Amino acid sequence: MRHLLAALLLLAACAPARPVTIEGRTVPYEEAAQQDFRRGQALYDQGNYAAAAAALGGFLSRYPESKLAEEALFRRGQALVRAGQLEQAEAALQQLLEKHPTSPFKSAAAAELGNVQAKLGKQQALRPMVDQIPPEGPEREVQLRAFTDVLESAPAAEVARLVAETDKRSPAWPLAALKLARIQLHAGDRTHAAELASEILSVTDGVGPSADGARAVQRAAQPPANVKPNLLGIVLPLSGDLKGFADQALNGIALTLDLQNRGSLLVEIKDSKGEPDAAADAVAELAQAGAIAILGPLGLAEGPAAAARAQQLGIPLVSLSRAEGLTALGDYVFRDMPTSSAQARAVAEYAQRKLNVKGFGILHPDSPYGDEMSRYFWDALDATGAEVRAYEHYPRETTTFKPFIQSMVGRTVKDLEERQQYAEELKKILEQIKDPYKRRKAAQQLRNAQAPIVDFDALFIPDSARTVRLVAPAIAAEDVITTGCDTKELEVVKKTTKNEQLRTVQLLGTSLWDSPDLIDERSGVARYVQCSIFVDVFFPNSERAATRKFVDDYGSAYHRAPGFLEAHAFDAAALIKKAVSERRPQTREALRDALAGMQKPFEGAAGDTVFGKDREAQKPFFWLWVNRGTIVEFDPEGPPPVPPAMPLAAAPAK
Length: 654
Hints:
By secondary structure, this protein is an alpha/beta fold. It is 51% helix and 12% strand. The protein is built from 26 helices and 17 strands. It has a seven-stranded mixed beta sheet with strand order 9-8-10-11-12-16-17, sandwiched between helices. The protein has a five-stranded parallel beta sheet with strand order 4-3-5-6-7, with helices on both faces. α4 (69-82) packs antiparallel against α5, α9 crosses α10 (172-186) and α10 packs parallel to α12. The radius of gyration is 29 Å and the shape is flat. The N and C termini lie far apart (64 Å). The relative contact order is 0.07.
């Protein structure tokens, strides 16, 4: 049977792709399927989940034999979940698991299905997964991974019931028991957490990941050591991929704390290795050593692990990680590092409040940062009723942006063919000009003469300065005007186009734009980013007195300019030092209350800082714009450095 199946698969792989006719054109089956699939995926990327589910459903009916069918079924299930259509999502995911048992999306679909069933109130969603785990074989590990994924978001009551009802000989029991022990530890029930950890070690003979986790729970459940009010713990990735960032942070910290322990506030530094478990263990070791508080770590992965352990142990932690939702882990967790969501929200709010922008475009790379920033920016617009009227994303390593810009402004061949006047003119050219060369040239001139359709007033591009240098000229090449603050340039364009009411587009960026690469005149493209606006979390050329002093002190010590990491690490250390020296807390609770109850902002290197109710550092961003080849700081509360968008009623007709 296996040989027959293999032969059939081989024949299918070698069989020629049957053609499909689309709008009068003959296209290979798989190529047509890919185009159709991408449309559904694009709707999903835009956050239009209901439309994405419908589009992917249509794809499955049109191309059931496509190589992308399994992925389309899984993505449709995801889209239905996010559209709130849970029953339909459950059916789609079950269909994938039943009809495609060897699918590479099986584990992810099982995890998604478990979450859906939990949301639907099917409290025994974990039980069927436990019963399906085979005693041995490769499928056992696949099922265990899927079970672990679902277990991660399962309600505490369901986990407790599963631990009580599952045979301890089941490979699922140690995983569920470890999850419950961590829940108990987080809730402050150290006694029961330690007891359950001992059971896990007994069942596993002390071997394996569950046993390692149980030992960590035991360490965290130990009674707190005698607190040393003058000892600060520091957790940083002293080894591993993030070591360079740790060195930068230590340089900033050393400007306010004596790392040789010759000052009144002593320090003990532990290596997080850039790994979640190592970071959590470092926190536990420092807590056991008597540290009154902990500063760090840095990474997105290690930040939540360290914060969760600090909350479990009841020791204040001031994190430098950008991981979203960090301070929600508990009232001992503070942070002095702006998040991506805060940065995206600030840009969206400023553009609406000060620049009168109601319609936006988003152009981002297919990268974790680009996806993240675009999602947060779009969420901020949705919250205020603003619109995203143009959206495109491009491959991470691309250097050609013309097709993406053309798509945003309606200048692709397909877009132009939908314009009646263009279609009529093109028809005349094809009928009247017989010479192939002249016909192509005339058609190209006609395409170039078509004005872009720009129905957005600002374009958000969350990418690096080096990429923006390539994007900006591509935007200008499509006759989109982005230099709204340059009156001389606008006058030239008005005379050239004989149009007195020009619609300009404001370029908006993130902290990645703050680089000499953006305005490097040697590249010849600096003029295309003229008038751009973006934010940063630190600007060494700022005129703020505290920032200037920090930059001067850092330059004297290290003979170079500091970056944002040095500045925020300095501020975090100085905040703790200030609380210890002024309030002289003798307990960790007292220091936590001192940090949370700050009344007067600390004048830090990266801005005047005070912790909000959510224990996030409340400090302003540095607002920057490009003026004649120079990055200049401006006051976001004052008049904007660029003209606001014209009212929609006054916009020129298309």
